[in-house]
């Protein structure tokens, strides 16, 4: 038997599989990467030697209103490490600067005070000025242009009014934007609902260029770059993390060049060759990305990329927050078939996109090819409403998969952290 530890919530699930059935274990080299220096030293080094930019401590001179865009509670950015250093650099260059931390929720729910404390630590959560972005609050929003795709670019006014706009985040493979980080702090991070819907249209999400690890020719990326430019995003700090959510790399400076350098670093670490199998077991890397079904679709795409024409995906994801998107859930619950869902999505014009459509589109794409069994804490009915199967454990899921495939000898590829890899076909 071969044993695997699968991240699940804040803990893990240990599973054992007969050795002869294991086709491969696909793991990002980021999880084994040994950086030089501590997390703090890595971040400080990046800020001291920014890419294609003056140091932050110089950029901030003479700037009264400084806004730092920061990822929300759904992203594992180690802000308890990065934010104190950013604040220190800003105040070193301008002790009188008024600093606001703008939490980039995109279209997610608002981040709670408890989540702010968990993410930043009590001192920052209790003493700094936080603004929680709301994509549907018109009083927070202002139009600054028109996206290359034709949608209106409407973003948070506090970012627009800043004398200096900074963003912190992290870079990981993203299932349709190519990579997270950089320009995504603006779109979708602090954009209006209408802007996000225009960018996340079925035409773009369905593009063959809108895939994990790809930026070139990616239509969503093109929109996002424009948004970052119009927002005057002046400086970024993006980190790369391992499976323990520890910083192993940091890239600071120009919003595009620093991001590209970071993406190349991640691509080198995350790239794994697909190993064809009958069953693929994947996860969303544990907390915070496995809080709901919505986010869990990301981990499924890694499994999708390694399966053949026929197969079963076993997705191990805690989903303590349930489905993660009411319209996402209702789309599947109210449909007679997955094909019906896909037909409706594809028929929509890019200006008719509805909330969570992109996640529905990717999940539908997967379900049209493969059975998906969720090993999760989410209610069984919720999973079955969404045209998937529910299992209380990986062992039971494997038995179900064998029954679906009609064999007990099917090969299994294990992907312990599906959101950390770029599976190359």
Automatic annotation (TrEMBL):
Domain Lactate racemase C-terminal as annotated: residue spans: 272-423
Pfam family, one: LarA_C
Top-rank taxon: Bacteria
Domain LarA-like N-terminal intervals: 8-213
Stated name of the protein: Nickel-dependent lactate racemase
Annotated organism of origin: Clostridium ganghwense
Gene name tied to this protein: larA
């Amino acid at each position: 038997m071969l044993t695997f530890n699968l991240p699940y919530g804040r803990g893990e699930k240990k599973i054992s599989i007969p050795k002869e059935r294991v086709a491969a274990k696909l793991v990002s080299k980021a999880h084994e990467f040994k950086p030089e220096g501590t997390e703090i030293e890595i971040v400080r080094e990046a800020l001291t030697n920014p890419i294609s930019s003056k140091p932050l401590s110089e950029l901030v001179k003479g700037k009264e209103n400084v806004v730092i865009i920061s990822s929300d509670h759904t992203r594992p950015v180690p802000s308890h490490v990065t934010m104190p250093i950013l604040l220190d650099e800003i105040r070193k260059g301008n002790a009188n600067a008024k600093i606001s931390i703008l939490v980039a929720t995109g279209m997610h729910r608002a981040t709670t005070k408890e989540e702010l404390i968990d993410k930043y630590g009590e001192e920052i959560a209790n003493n700094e000025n936080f603004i929680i972005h709301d994509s549907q609050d018109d009083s927070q929003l202002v139009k600054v242009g028109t996206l290359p795709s034709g949608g209106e670019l409407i973003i948070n006014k506090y970012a627009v009014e800043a004398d200096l706009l900074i963003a912190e985040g992290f870079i990981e493979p993203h299932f349709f934007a190519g990579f997270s980080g950089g320009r995504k702090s603006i779109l979708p991070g602090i954009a209006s609902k209408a802007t996000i819907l225009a960018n996340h249209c079925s035409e773009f999400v369905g593009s063959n260029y809108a895939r994990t690890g790809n930026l070139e020719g990616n239509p969503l990326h093109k929109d996002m770059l424009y948004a970052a430019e119009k927002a005057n995003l002046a400086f970024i700090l993006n980190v790369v993390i391992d499976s323990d959510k520890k910083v192993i790399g940091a890239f600071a400076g120009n919003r595009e060049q620093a991001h590209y350098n970071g993406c190349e670093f991640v691509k080198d670490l995350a790239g794994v060759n697909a190993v064809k199998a009958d069953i693929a077991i994947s996860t969303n890397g544990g907390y915070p990305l496995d809080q709901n079904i919505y986010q869990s679709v990301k981990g499924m795409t890694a499994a999708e990329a390694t399966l053949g024409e026929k197969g079963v995906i076993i997705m191990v994801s805690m989903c303590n927050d349930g489905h993660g998107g009411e319209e996402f859930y209702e789309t599947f619950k109210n449909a007679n078939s997955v094909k019906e869902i896909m037909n409706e999505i594809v028929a929509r014009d890019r200006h008719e996109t509805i909330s969570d459509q992109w996640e529905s589109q990717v999940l539908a794409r997967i379900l049209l090819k493969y059975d998906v069994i969720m090993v999760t804490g989410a209610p069984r009915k919720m999973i079955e409403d969404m045209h998937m199967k529910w299992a209380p454990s990986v062992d039971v899921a494997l038995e179900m998969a064998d029954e679906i495939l009609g064999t007990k000898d099917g090969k299994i590829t294990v992907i312990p952290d599906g959101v950390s890899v770029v599976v190359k076909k």
